[in-house]
Write a structure and sequence with these properties.
Blueprint (H helix, E strand, L loop, with lengths): L18 H16 L4 H6 L8 E6 L15 E6 L2 E7 L3 H7 L9 E3 L5 H4 L2 H10 L6 E5 L3 H11 L1 H11 L4 H4 E5 L3 E6 L2 E7 L9 E7 L2 E5 L8 H5 L5 E7 L4 H5 L5 H11 L3 H11 L3 E8 L8 H9 L5 E4 L4 E4 L1
Parallel strand pairs: 3-4, 4-5, 5-6, 10-11, 11-12, 12-13
Antiparallel strand pairs: 1-2, 1-14, 2-3, 7-8, 8-9, 9-10
């Protein structure tokens, strides 16, 4: 099945309660704190962010920008009232707003690898959240190089930030952001959210990862950028959603004619991205419930319809296929 239309989202209406409801809610928060939950943890769920869902914010493969959509890699999971952002390609701030996520409620960010179409807007996203009123911690997880990436961003914007801290009374964003560099294995384990990583195959980048999100009784796996990688089969076994990058090789020759570095670019793409038929093989062997195509290469060919992408994968996967697009929303 090919499904390229977003599911209708529930409206995101802030509800107001009575003073009694407020007091009861506050008492519940204190009770949670007495059981070991921090005040920050209770605040994470203080505002309704809508139903549990997966949103593809940006689905273009590569850093090229040609318009508002598609934009480079960015994804959102909302689970139990907590937003989790996966990759921060250019455009992620505005797409989060389109997804009805108040930037000041930013909480967890995960970077799969340090290519610009996956991390270029990390610093600006954090800054934009701060400008929107962020006052609680944000945990950022990424491979080796994350600390340096953030340190250089802080340095490049130091004058502005210091000015706003002293002149506007803002908290120090650098103290709110908590970076965590990870390798293969367990990345995060918080309440009913468990995140683990698998180093994939994306030469010449060594520190490149697939990510698995275990969310209560649901599992979402992101392939990250990778060539055909058989170990992903076990990693994604039985996933509710496997969000996998995809390359349509017959269109590469036409694509490289539109680029000045044609010969090198084609060789690069073939070395570290997954052909459509191999995406289907991974999904079949992993017995995933739904395969979601994402990070399209080429991403700027209007002749590649959703049906073309789906049919290319369907040759090796007979299950449900969803052809992603920016702002596609899937229920969890």
């Amino acid at each position: 099945m090919c499904d390229s239309d977003p599911l209708a989202e529930e409206s995101h209406v802030a509800t107001t309660g009575t003073r009694r409801q407020f007091i009861a809610g506050f008492g519940a928060a204190l009770g949670a704190a007495s059981l070991g939950r921090s005040v920050a943890a209770s605040q994470e769920k203080a505002r309704y962010l809508g139903p549990d869902r997966l949103v593809l914010l940006g689905t273009r493969g590569g850093p090229l920008i040609t318009g508002y959509a598609p934009t480079p890699s960015a994804n959102l999971i909302v689970f139990d009232g907590i937003p989790l952002v996966v990759d921060t390609g250019y455009g992620v701030t505005l797409k989060l707003l389109d997804a009805h996520i108040p930037l000041e409620l930013l909480r967890y960010i995960f970077i799969t690898h340090h290519h610009s179409d996956h991390n270029l807007e990390l610093g600006p996203l954090l800054y934009n959240a701060w400008a929107s009123g962020l006052s609680t911690p944000v945990d950022v997880y990424g491979p080796n190089g994350l600390n340096a990436l953030l340190a250089y961003y802080w340095k490049s914007n130091g004058f502005d930030m210091e000015t706003r801290i002293s002149d506007e009374g803002r908290p120090d964003l650098r103290r709110l952001v908590r970076p965590h560099e990870f390798t293969q294995g367990l990345v995060m384990n918080y309440d009913s959210i468990k995140v683990s990583s698998l180093r994939n195959h994306h030469p010449p980048v060594v520190e490149s990862y697939a990510l698995k999100f275990e969310l209560g009784n649901k599992t979402v796996v992101f392939s990250g950028d990778t060539a055909f990688f058989p170990p992903l089969v076990e990693f994604a076994k039985g996933a509710d959603y496997l969000v996998h990058e995809v390359t349509y090789r017959p269109a590469l020759d036409a694509m490289v004619t539109r680029r000045p570095n044609a010969a090198r670019l084609k060789a690069s793409i073939l070395s570290h991205h997954t052909a459509a038929e191999d995406v289907g093989r991974v999904a079949t062997l992993a017995k995933v419930k739904v395969l979601v195509l994402n990070h399209f290469v080429p991403g700027d060919d209007p002749s590649l319809t959703p049906e073309i992408w789906a049919n290319a994968v369907r040759a090796t996967f007979k299950g449900k296929i969803i052809v992603g697009k920016d702002m596609l929303t899937l229920a969890l």
